[in-house]
Batch of 2 targets.
Target 1
Amino acid sequence: MTSVARVAVDVSLPHLDRVFDYAIPESMSAAAQPGRRVRVRFSGRLVDGFILDLADSSGHRLQPLQRVVTEYPVLTPEILRLSRVVADRYAGSLADVLRAAIPPRHARAEAAALRAADPVSPVALPATEPAEAWASYVGGAALLTRLRGERADVHAVLTCAPGGAVDPAGDWPALLANLAAVAAPARGVVIVVPDARDLRRVDAALTRELGPGRHAILSADLGPQRRYSQFLSALTGRVRVVLGTRAAAFAPIADPGLFVLWDDGDESLSEPHAPGWHAREVLALRAHLCGGALVAAGFTRTAETQLWLDTRWAAPITPRRDLLRRIAPRVVADDASHDAGAARLPHRAWEAAKEGLARGPVLVQVARRGYVPALACQDCRAAARCAACSGPLAVAGTGSVPVCRWCGDAVPRWRCPSCGSARLRAVTIGSRRTAEELGRVFPGVPVLSSGGDHVIDEVAADPALVVATPGAEPIAAGGYAAVLILDAHAHLLRVALRAGEDTARRWFAAAALARPAATVAVTTEAGSPVVQALVRWDPGWLAQRELAERAELGLPPAVRSAMLTGTPAAIADAAARLPDDLRVLGPLPVGDRLRLLVTAPRSSGDDLTRALHAISATRSARKDPEPLVISVDPLDWGAD
């Protein structure tokens, strides 16, 4: 009889990222099974852990298990293997990944779910035919044929068409739901979306396709009890489709065979805590490990998905050009900023709004929320900052005094430290100030604001001005009669690795909400590559250009990368331990810290992560007091 449990303890220290043996008391011999959560004594305190395996003996003197917590194996062999691979890829620890992969236990939810699941029987789903909308996509029919076959190891990058309000080919939630419905009778499906708004839309589409109660939802917004209940529904096989946000990439679905990701460029899909994994890479690894299908969908492509296409790891699924000619909006660019005293709303944008309001709602996308979120000196253009903490100053409303956005101090008598001027100018205009200005330009027209803590999901087809920040644009019944993208230069002038890519995401997402042939007015010069891609509705061309530029400069994703941020002593110690064949940039000052940027050829990515994990383990073992943060394949090198 086995008497030893091999346990992964919930301890994040890198030098303890291994399995520990514990004795199984006779009273727990039946309950102590692989995959179950347990409580163990580790370094003098009680911690959680998971039993990974059982053994007959151990060469060590063992502490006993303190308690078997779960009545069901919540850690499956597939998720354990995936979590270990993800931890290794991001130079992290298994404990950190498992903490995100498996939600905290809720006893009441567990008891109810296990009663309902006894005995567990797989849910039978009827065969579903592919939607007719797939005929409007080059490669769409082939994708659906593969998903219905015995082997569904296809990888695809789906570029969605606009016009979802009027044409099924542009209704991306319905397309993703149909993918799931076609695949689910034969294999488990996991769909990951960035946020709660997308979750609600796909949830409604899945309910229409599969019927109520045929899929599970995994999101932290559900609350502990419902989230754990939904997790157990997938784990016990009562549903074959799981929809969720970032952490749902680890959902324990039975017979996993299709993984779908929407809008992989959204920063919400990147885990903010160590080891900083991205849902796109987790799903790609999972599809590779289990031989399943992967579909990354969006209105645009990231450089990472374009790399999949260039290396032929994935195939493109694109809307037919005749479809785009029929439903795509008409994009015009108008930049009047070079004219002295030019208005913030150029003439062509004003005309588009006026004509659109005669037919329905008009969307106005602005870069920032608030009133005036950034100020500068009127005379020398130096950024206006707080004297106490150096934070940026902002104005909350008409007649308000400048306030620091960091410490909250009011600065009624600000003076520029560079030139002594007391005059301020607005650097950017927020959504509330924009709504106020448009209300004066178009008197009598309702003005709605969506962004921040007040996000509107839908608006009616009646004429109205809808001012929204990126990602908070409501869906308009029948589509928007016109779309204005204001302050476009604020997006294009950002100095960051993914600035152009992120700008394209925001603009294409807003333009996709327009009616066919409606005017989309972008307030910048027409020569910008992002504008040119939008005019032709050709995000693939833009992604190819972006990836080629990064490859030429040796930037991600053409290379594997890491960012090390810490004190000078920590950076110097880490730099001395890095392999000689790595490319090291820096150190660069970041506040009171230094930063190293490290790259390696993609073929040497595993060597890079092993070296970084060894550095972390050594520092952890010797209790190094100098702080050092290691981020592998960070979302953006420009992030602080």
Target 2
Amino acid sequence: MGKFDIKSMPQWDYLEKSYNQIKKFHLRDLFKDENRFSEFSIQDDNIGVTFDYSKNIITTDIFKLLIDFAKASNVNEYAKRMFSGEKINWTEKRAVLHTALRNRSNTPVYVDGKDIMPEINSVLLKMETFSNDLRSGRWKGVTGKKITDIVNIGVGGSDLGPKMVCEALKYYSDGPNVYFVSNIDSADIYEVLKRLSPETTLFIIASKTFTTLETITNALTARNWITEKLGDKAIASHFVALTASIKKVLEFGIDKNNIFKFWDFVSGRYSLWSAIGLSIVCSVGFDKFVELLDGAHYIDQHFLNAPYERNIPVIMAVLGFWYNNFFGASTHAILPYSQYLNRFPAYLQQSDMESNGKTINIEGDRVDYDTGPVIWGESGVNGQHSFCQLIHQGTKFIPCDFIGFVNPLEKIGDHHEKLMANYFAQTEALAFGLTKKQVINNLMAMGLSFPDIEFLASHSVFEGNKPTNSILIDKLTPKTLGVLIAIYEHKIFVQGVMWRINSFDQWGVELGKVLANVILPELKSHVDNKHDSSTKNLIGIFNSKKNRDL
């Protein structure tokens, strides 16, 4: 990136001045321009996606400044370096190549001088063969029964990605039932296992290092559950592993033929495209998994080649940067109007906040500007009856993404029209609100008395001027889901480059793990490792009360 302070860039100064001007205006004023939608929207009929960003607090000049900032930040150079296999994860000295996992053009991608595509294709072929055998019943449990249930045991990216996709593509599922266990809380695995039979259950153990405490603890519980009922010989028929640590898997007892490899150039939160997606393949079939890859690959090419003024991930990134760094927006809400995408906000929480929740820049200095926002959300219309009151009339400034679909997968009465009426109404209400004059006219039309109108009017005013992006997709398919996920992946990447931070390490995750391993022996043997008074006393209360019949 080269050493420089982003706040010393001329674009930063221009944007700061532009913010001081634009805050005097309202979206009602900006929409007096009848061409606003055509200027600030993108429609791509190849993938059936409309991206409307016209309800953002920008002008043509501000938009150009934001795009110029991305260009001046060398986003294009860094994107090319990522796709070509350079080690842009500089703290861990690793390449970042989730894009190679869905490289449907199969062009060579080199890491340390070696083309990695043959190995990626080999794993994909192994996933196809395994899933076909499992789904057809050729792969059987140790007692000869067909596998009817799969339990994916992982945590973080080894859980959130495949879980979200399996839920999103549930409509297309025609394979075994798939369950996910991630929490080390025994309730998680207990509630799953109690409804399953060992004879017809397969466990997928997903861990890059095969040392993650949560995953290995749950995997050992699963192994005991199988072997107590079916014996040690059952492990070969009821366990597979997704990992970069072959030796550890063999020590666990899983057959070497049941190991699906992935690589250290794939961060966990970007790994659903790899062998970590095996549960997806088993659920919907390999062909639909390939469609998912196709959709992401399409956006990879769009991101690399589209002019930034027409580049969806870049535009989303610069708009988020605009609100985060100039409006002081500390959070960003994701509202998918599809029950199938109910896990999508949780998935983005990890991919965004673990990527850009950083304070140290490439020079090793602490930044003096805000980086990644808090990502949160809920499926519509549930969010409307939960937190949307705060977005509409609260004191917080919260930009939102609304994701909707033109055609439902299931047609039941007028459910979808009612759902989408809410989708369109929310962005309109957030943008334009209700003035006091409009409120008074509405209350008068309801026949309320003047004292009641005077009392209620101020409570019913909606300030509006709340920015939103609308992503309207023709239909939820494996391909359009791949498109949607990749859009957000590249948005996160662009913002990381603009903030000059490493979006692909996660050192902040490690400290809690280290301390937990220090404390664990104290909970078993009452050893005192000298903590602060709060932690020491809480551990003491726990140890004194555990195993009591309370």
